[in-house]
Design goal:
Blueprint lengths: L1 H13 L6 E5 L4 H11 L8 E4 H9 L2 E2 L2 H14 L8 H21 L3 H15 L12 H25 L2 E2 L1 H18 L3 E5 L6 H12 L3 E4 L2 E2 H4 L8 H7 L13 E2 L7 E7 L4 H11 L9 E5 L5 H6 L7 E4 L1 E3 L4 H18 L3 E3 H10 L4 H16 L4 E3 H8 L14 H15 L6 H21 L8 H14 L1 E3 L8 E4 L11 E5 L18 H6 L5 H17 L3 E7 L12 H9 L4 E6 L12 E2 L3 H10 L5 H9 L1 H9 L14 H19 L6 H9 L1 H11 L10 H26 L4 E16 L5 E14 L2 E8 L7 E3 L15 H14 L9 E7 L8 E2 L1 E4 L2 H16 L5 E2 L6
Parallel strand pairs: 1-2, 1-5, 3-4, 5-6, 7-8, 9-18, 9-19, 10-16, 10-17, 11-16, 17-18, 23-25, 24-27
Antiparallel strand pairs: 12-15, 13-14, 20-28, 21-22, 22-23, 25-26
Helix pairs in contact: 3-8, 4-5, 5-8, 5-20, 6-7, 8-9, 14-15, 14-20, 18-19, 25-26, 25-31, 27-29, 27-30, 28-30, 31-32
Length: 895
């Protein structure tokens, strides 16, 4: 901590009793390092007083600060009392006031008169409108903007007056109040002030520092470097060069200190990394290069605070680390759940009859829960997924979730005050559960925020809708962060860029050194245009860039090893462009820079197909499987042996998922079940024209029965794509019935023998005395003019129903997933041959595809060979499945 050491030695040389000094710092963090330096110097006196410059300005202004929710509520009360047009309600007011308030604070801090700036904005808009008839449409965007600044010229002066009556002040008003008192304070104070490590001042801060210097009641220590101070082109030295011109610095008081540290030998490495989180994966490799394994002189600076969790994940080998930065509240699960709770309440105001499942499921996943709650939630999700309920009725929600400890939060609230009370109670209950420290902090933040909102609302007669409460909470979530506490004097330091002020480290590692992160660039959220900010000397993004440049160069000027990592991938708002500060060092500095390209080297978990050997347990399961073999088992094996292993050997099944749009599988089931209902009524009959005409009229009724079988809600099919799917299903069923009707009209005799015919224990011999038994269901068996037809319904199109088996290919003919439809029909043919009731009939097997229902049944044809040859190929496939030496190997599908 070279800079701080120099200051302490200088002050001790002036006065061995440091309690005579008030040390003014840009932030609180260096205080602990100053105390350590005093301890190392065996200082035994009283400590100096420490202040931030904001605290000193506040002390001079002597006004009570007001910000955030209390300020918004008070300001809206003032705005409403003025009856300005448009008469925004509180939710509309919150959309523009927080941004305006920041602008107003900037105006108060940097300009001589806020009213002059407000009037100028109004005049500027009037000039832009000179050629338009201002008496016409108020909805023209320019006219709206003009009216806005006209209103602000009325509203903000009154707001300032009302705040002053209460002795309340925004940060800008505190600066304005302090400005009038600074000259008197500087002349009359008996204390001595030491300003350490400042770069940019607001006009009020500059007036304070220069006033105290004038009366010899202050001294300033700046940390500058010749590299960026002497070169006018270097934006990092912009403010310091200006400070050196102050008349208070003369031959009697020199400008301290301009050092020559940046030019000293350094190892600078720039890492081009493919991916944002991938940057953190490089950290362990960088740590290997650091000799001091306590990392006490190393700082990891995160320019993107969202990288904190990923960075901590890779630092498990570091014994001591200190986090000096906040983690955004908005990135935590409880924050997301609270946002979703308010969104749910808004939806309930619109729809009083049901809940959309996507509004409920994330809340149940993200809110902390007890073991009892977990059981209730798992049961609820299982039942909703099984029945594919997209819109859950209030009655059903009560039946399934009323046992949940926070069920009241999911019901429509009677009012915002009541809901706030419920949320406060819920937060108190959650803190008794076993939750981690970060989540505990998260919940505590919200409990505190809910209390503040509730208490602050009490004095005002403001109607708060759920939408307004949601905006208030979101403003809070987006602006708050959880601060970490650690041991700042030991181990590795993890910090944001602003936390590095006044501190120096031997090893500096910066992550996300991208344009847009360092510097932030033109991303100011403001209503005041750039040219007007320049005219009134308000800070623009250019000044902010200079401030960031100073922090960056100051941090690396004392470092010996500098590692700069940036994300080279373009995604979202990230352009994948390295910071221009890296380019500046590359082109302008004398340092040699090593460049490294880090590709995202993460590989798939497995690069070769899954392979499972047939252990004794697997073989035992296969012996059990032989007792009930279905055609679909064999087609599953053909498609992917691993699927067969998972479903038939391990007996696993796919989890239910809620379908918002009917899947291909369930579309097939809808048609299938409907046809089953249609023909079940006609079973055992020789069909007449009237039978089929009656069935066509009753299709809707049969489809509704099929929907019940699928356990779907009727309203699932009332709109959108599902309505279309149902209409297509109806057309397919109509085409099948019409096809049968045409057969009868042409004089054919058609009799429905059976529907969904179950068969089992149909033995099929293997080698020696070994055998398997077939079981399954045949979709439809009918008799057309004396020929028995075995029909299998398929959603897919028909493929390869022409069988060509000869002596050369008989063994492997059905070892091909392209021929699975023919395989299935051959097994059905074999089975029906072995059912005594069908002996003696000529047999025809075929597929009836829903994709081309008008075609009717397409028959299996033997161009070469016969059913006996086909069953030899089926036998070969079954023997392969049973062969202990042939492993189950995953089939990799290429697309």
């Amino acid at each position: 901590m070279k800079f701080l050491n120099k200051i302490i030695h200088e002050l001790l040389a002036q006065n061995p009793d440091l309690s005579a000094f008030n040390i003014i710092l840009p932030g609180k963090r260096p205080i602990v390092f100053i105390r350590q330096i005093l301890e190392e110097n065996n200082y035994s006196g009283l400590l100096p007083n420490f202040f931030t410059i904001e605290e000193l300005i506040n002390k001079i202004a002597d006004q009570q600060s007001i910000q955030g929710i209390p300020l918004w509520l008070f300001s809206f009360d003032v705005y409403r009392s003025l009856n300005l047009i448009p008469r925004d309600d509180f939710s509309d007011f919150l959309k523009w006031f927080p941004t305006l308030q920041k602008d107003w604070d900037d105006i108060l801090k940097f300009s001589d008169s806020d009213q002059a700036v407000l009037q100028y904005m109004f005049d500027e808009e009037r000039i832009k409108e000179w050629a338009q008839d201002l008496g016409e449409d108020d909805d023209v965007p320019r006219k709206k903007f003009l009216n806005f600044w006209q209103n602000m010229n009325v509203f903000l002066p009154v707001l300032k007056e009302r705040l002053q009556e209460k002795n309340w002040a925004t940060s800008g008003m505190i600066h304005e109040a302090a400005k009038a008192k600074i000259a008197d304070f500087a002349e009359n104070t008996k204390e001595e002030f030491v300003f350490c490590g400042f770069n940019a001042f607001t006009p009020v801060e500059e007036k304070l520092v220069r006033g105290l210097l004038k009366w010899n009641k202050a001294q300033c220590f700046f940390q500058a470097d010749h590299y960026y101070f002497d070169d006018e082109r270097q934006e990092a030295g912009k403010f310091l060069r200006n400070h050196k011109t102050w008349k208070e610095f003369d031959e009697n008081r020199t400008f301290q200190w301009i050092e020559d540290d940046f030019s000293q030998p350094k190892k600078i490495k720039v890492y081009e990394v493919s991916g944002n989180v991938t940057q953190t994966k490089v950290l362990p490799e960088i740590f290997k290069e650091i000799n001091n394994k306590t990392y006490s002189n190393t700082a990891v600076v995160l320019l993107d605070e969202n990288l904190l969790p990923a960075s901590l994940d890779v630092m498990h080998g570091v014994d001591n680390l200190n986090i000096t930065m906040g983690f955004p509240l908005k990135n935590l699960s409880f924050s997301n759940a609270v946002k979703r709770l308010f969104y749910l309440q808004k939806q309930l105001e619109k729809n009083k009859s049901s809940y959309y499942y996507r509004d409920i499921f994330p809340i149940l996943e993200e809110l902390p829960k007890s073991d009892e709650d977990e059981l209730v939630i798992n049961d609820f999700k299982a039942k909703i997924e099984e029945r594919n309920i997209v819109y859950i009725s209030k009655k059903l929600l009560y039946e399934l979730l009323s046992g949940l400890s926070y069920f009241n939060l999911l019901q429509k609230a009677e009012g915002t005050n009541v809901y706030l009370d419920m949320l406060i109670t819920f937060c108190q209950q959650v803190k008794w559960l076993e939750i981690d420290d970060i989540q505990y902090e998260n919940v505590s933040h919200f409990e505190n925020a809910f209390r503040i909102i509730k208490n602050q609302l009490t004095p005002y007669n403001i109607e708060i809708k759920m939408e307004t409460l949601e905006i208030l909470i979101n403003q809070h979530i987006n602006s708050e962060s959880i601060d970490f506490q650690g041991e700042p004097l030991r181990g590795l330091q993890i910090m944001g860029l602003l936390e590095t002020r006044l501190l120096n480290f031997e090893n500096v590692i910066l992550l996300s050194v991208n344009e847009g992160k360092l510097p932030l660039g033109n991303s100011q959220n403001t209503y005041i245009p750039f040219d007007i900010r320049r005219f009134f000397d308000l800070h623009t993004f250019l000044e902010n860039d200079s401030i960031y440049a100073y922090h960056f160069y100051r941090l690396i000027q004392d470092a010996k090893n500098v590692h700069l990592l940036y994300n080279a991938l373009s995604s979202g708002v990230n352009t994948g462009e390295k910071s221009r500060f890296i380019t500046q060092i590359e082109m302008e500095s004398s340092h040699e820079i090593e460049h490294l390209i880090i590709e995202n080297s993460s590989e798939p978990i497995t690069t070769k197909p899954i392979e499972i050997s047939k252990t004794q347990i697997v073989q035992d399961r296969l012996q059990k499987w032989k007792e009930k073999v279905s055609a679909s088992h064999l087609t599953s094996y053909l498609y992917n042996p691993i699927d067969f292993y998972l479903s038939k050997i391990l007996n696993t099944s796919e989890t239910d998922e809620i379908e918002e749009e009917l899947s291909v599988k369930n579309y097939g089931n809808l048609v299938h079940y409907s046809l089953q209902e249609v023909y079940e009524v006609l079973k055992g009959k020789v069909l007449k024209e009237s039978d089929l005409k009656d069935s066509v009229k009753a299709i809707d009724q049969y489809i509704n029965i099929a929907i019940e079988k699928l356990k779907h809600q009727p309203e699932f099919y009332e709109k959108g794509m599902n309505y279309i799917h149902k209409a297509i299903a109806k057309k397919v069923i109509e085409n099948i019935l019409t096809h049968d009707l045409e057969l009868i009209k042409q004089g054919n005799k058609l009799e429905i023998i059976d529907i969904e015919r179950r068969f089992e224990s149909i033995d099929f011999p293997l080698d020696g005395n070994d055998k398997i038994s077939f079981f399954g269901f045949i979709d439809r068996i009918d008799k057309l003019n004396g020929t028995l037809r075995i029909i299998d319904y398929k959603t897919a199109k028909i493929k390869n129903l022409s069988v060509k088996i000869d002596g050369d290919n008989v063994a492997e003919y059905f070892h091909n997933s392209e021929r699975k439809q023919a395989l299935q029909l051959c097994i059905y043919h074999y089975v029906v041959q072995h059912l005594p009731e069908f002996w003696g009939y000529p047999i025809e097997t075929g597929i009836w595809s829903f994709a081309d229902a008008k075609k009717g049944m397409v028959s299996l044809q033997f161009d070469k060979g016969n059913i006996d040859d086909a069953m030899k190929s089926v036998k070969s496939l079954i023997l392969e499945i049973l062969n202990p030496d042939v492993n189950f190997v995953e089939t990799i599908k290429t697309y």
